[in-house]
TrEMBL record:
<dbReference type="GO" id="GO:0071555">
    <property type="term" value="P:cell wall organization"/>
</dbReference>
<dbReference type="InterPro" id="IPR008962">
    <property type="entry name" value="PapD-like_sf"/>
</dbReference>
<dbReference type="GO" id="GO:0030288">
    <property type="term" value="C:outer membrane-bounded periplasmic space"/>
</dbReference>
<dbReference type="Pfam" id="PF00345">
    <property type="entry name" value="PapD_N"/>
</dbReference>
<dbReference type="InterPro" id="IPR013783">
    <property type="entry name" value="Ig-like_fold"/>
</dbReference>
<protein>
    <recommendedName>
        <fullName>Pili assembly chaperone N-terminal domain-containing protein</fullName>
    </recommendedName>
</protein>
<feature type="signal peptide">
    <location>
        <begin position="1"/>
        <end position="23"/>
    </location>
</feature>
<keyword id="KW-0732">Signal</keyword>
<dbReference type="InterPro" id="IPR016147">
    <property type="entry name" value="Pili_assmbl_chaperone_N"/>
</dbReference>
<dbReference type="InterPro" id="IPR050643">
    <property type="entry name" value="Periplasmic_pilus_chap"/>
</dbReference>
<feature type="domain" description="Pili assembly chaperone N-terminal">
    <location>
        <begin position="43"/>
        <end position="159"/>
    </location>
</feature>
Length: 265
């Protein structure tokens, strides 16, 4: 699957006419294509491929970094690591060209364990695209009229590495997660919070979550989506509390919705 990452360049200018100042802005869009969006390094494999393609009209300079990924307290956490590398780490991609990034495992996960990482791909402004006034958070503060401002865009790709015992085809292993997720609702800061824990040895990607009502109808719980890593718990604030007798259905890893067990203790 291809995913388009839009890299925005905003040019701001100030013109003066008849003694009255007016502002003018122009916007150009370049596109980055990244695939696959869910790379894995299966047991007995040393590396996986990640492709970056520039179908635009201007060259792109991209930086690739890989961080360790874990979940604690219902939140994502990223750490420096030396278990997986991405090469080359800095890439210039000319218009119409694509570049292979090799994701190489240096350390084998423990048997029966899945390790999670995030591949971070950042655009770095080229010398002919001034970045004056762009703060680390990405907000723009032009220092002078007519300055060209290019926002540095970021794309985050999940990467999973499998230890012995999880098989050569991780897609099949992911099916385990569908049957080992449980839910409950707690109170946090006076609001109902849905917790879902994943007891499986592999991650599960929540595509959607719905409540099945007594009349057979269902209503979606928004915004309950995202990855839940192996052995982890994620949380989402919801509009209304749910009773312990509620029936929760979730689509996990793109599969048809299935009922999740209630987390009773």
């Amino acid at each position: 699957m291809h995913v388009a990452l839009r890299l925005l360049a905003i040019v701001a200018g100030i013109a003066t006419a008849l003694g009255t100042a007016s502002a003018a802005a122009a916007q150009s869009v370049n596109t980055m294509v990244i695939w696959p969006i869910d790379p894995v390094i299966a047991y007995k494999e040393r590396a996986a491929a990640l492709w970056l393609e520039n179908p635009g009209k201007k060259p792109l300079l991209m930086q690739v970094r890989i961080f360790g990924w874990n979940q604690d307290g219902g939140e994502d956490h990223f750490t420096e690591q030396k278990e997986v590398t991405g090469t080359p780490p800095l890439i210039r991609i000319e218009p119409g060209q694509r570049q292979l990034v090799r994701l190489t495992r240096l350390v084998m996960p423990e048997p029966g364990r899945e390790r999670a990482y995030r591949v971070i791909v950042d655009e770095i402004p080229l010398p002919d695209a001034p970045s004056d006034g762009v703060t680390p958070s990405g907000s723009a503060k032009p220092k002078q009229a007519g300055a060209a401002i290019q926002f540095r865009m970021r794309y985050s790709v999940p990467l999973y590495v499998y230890g012995e015992g999880l098989g050569h085809k991780p897609d099949k292993s992911q099916a385990i997660a569908r049957s080992q997720m449980e839910w409950r609702v707690i109170q946090a800061n006076g609001k109902p919070v849905l917790e879902i824990r994943n007891l499986a040895p592999v991650h599960g990607k929540i595509n959607s979550v719905s409540v099945r009502h007594a009349d057979g109808s269902t209503s979606k719980l928004n915004p309950v989506v995202g990855h839940i890593l192996a052995g982890s718990v994620m949380r989402w604030t919801i509009d209304k509390p749910l009773s312990d007798t509620a029936v929760i259905e979730a689509s996990v890893n793109g599969a048809a919705p299935a009922v999740l067990a209630h987390w009773s203790h």
